Amino acid sequence: MSRALDPALLAILVCPVTRGPLRWEAEAGELVSDAAGLAFPVRDRRPVLLVDEARRL
């Protein structure tokens, strides 16, 4: 997914583990929590913020 994530949505999303900020990785189509060391997928332009679905960095 190379499309940009809505900046307004990104501003309100937080990591479900740390409650810290997420950054958008457009090439991978993931939201990354550097603090938790996790990358959460975005499917059909919808963030999947489930720890079981996240990829460890």
Automatic annotation (TrEMBL):
<dbReference type="InterPro" id="IPR005651">
    <property type="entry name" value="Trm112-like"/>
</dbReference>
<comment type="similarity">
    <text>Belongs to the UPF0434 family.</text>
</comment>
<dbReference type="GO" id="GO:0005829">
    <property type="term" value="C:cytosol"/>
</dbReference>
<dbReference type="Pfam" id="PF03966">
    <property type="entry name" value="Trm112p"/>
</dbReference>
<protein>
    <recommendedName>
        <fullName>UPF0434 protein DVW87_14980</fullName>
    </recommendedName>
</protein>
